[in-house]
Amino acid sequence: MTDASATAPRRPGEQALAALGLGAPDLSPADASPHTFPGGGRWRTEIPSCEGPEALAVVLKEASRLDVPIHRISQGSGVWMLTDAEITEMVEATAERDIELCLFTGPRGTWDIGGSTRTDSRGGGLRARGHDAVAGCVEDAVRATELGVKCLLVADEGVLWTLHRARVAGIIPADTTLKVSALIGPVNPAAYAVYEGLGGDSINVPSDLTLDHLTEIRRVSGAPMDMYVEAPDDLGGYIRMYEIAELIRRGAPLYLKFGLSKAPGIYPYGHHMRDLTLSTAKERVRRGRLALDLLERHGAGADMAPLGSRLPGELNRFAIGS
Question: Which of 22-26, 80-84, 141-145, 216-220 has the lowest mean pLDDT?
């Protein structure tokens, strides 16, 4: 059962505004999500775009300095952009701190020979084009999990369903979690439920969804939601820190992702982008500290899920045919 204090509406500046006769209308308690993470807690944290061992070391050092709790660290360039030794180093460093490491499966539409993603319509988007692209994603998944990675980032519905079937069949470990990328994030409750059915364990929604949209989604699904509190420019550049308490109230269980606007893209990462990648990795942690400070000031910081927790709980899946 959810603690009533965890679902109470909180708005920045409301006490001062009410004293001036400018108070906002009361929010409905019915808008609050009834869901939590297994083991308790309504929010977890994620530092995205951590592109290799060196960037990871920067993130971990800065998180320790600023006291930023981290549940998950994710990478965006792809498994194929890392050597076995680099993956192993990242697995060991995150395991020491009981942090989930999530690596992106690839290839995806922006990096192959198809030009439709560069048209105004975006064509097939970021999805895996053709059998060989799906095979490449599966190859990445098998390789990464054999090296100890427990979370895979996916940007294609077919790849998601294939990897879900693979873990049911024992091809990859059964406790592997599958994270749906913001690049294909669902924008309505029906689509969100479909991604859950296909095997999504946490589902990244676009950062421009309204608070009402989050409530609508929570009426049909309790699958963990990922959301950029600050989004990169190529995902809109939205900064929603002042809504953080209400995002949790409406969207729990919710991963708070600390991205970075006004920063150049770094995918696919290489050492020619080293300085930019390390400086932006450090700043993402600082942005996390700013967001968590706001959450504390709004009186909503006490309902974080335990550090080290990573599993999504019982979710609804489509039946796998014979």
Answer: 22-26
Q: Three-state secondary structure along 130-141?
A: HHHHHHHHHHHH
pLDDT tens per residue, range 84-120: 999 999 999 999 999 999 999 987 656 666 655 555 5
Lookup result for tokens 């969207």: 251
Q: Alpha-carbon distance 73 to 27, whole Å?
A: 34
Give the 3-state secondary structure of residue 248. Answer: helix
Residue-level pLDDT at 235? 82
Between strands 254-258 and 225-230, the pairing is parallel
Contact 102, 153 (CB under 8 A): yes
What are residue 276's phi and psi, to 5 degrees? -65, -45
Q: Per the structure block, which two tokens stand in for 225? A: 């939601």
φ, ψ at 50 (rounded to 5°):
-95, 100
Q: How far apart are CA 193 and CA 209, in angstroms?
A: 16
- pLDDT tens-digit map of 265-275: 877 888 888 88
What is the CA angle 117-119-124, rounded to 5? 35
Alpha carbons 36 and 3: distance in angstroms, whole number: 10
Instruction: Please report the pLDDT score of residue 297 as a whole number.
Output: 86
pTM: 0.90
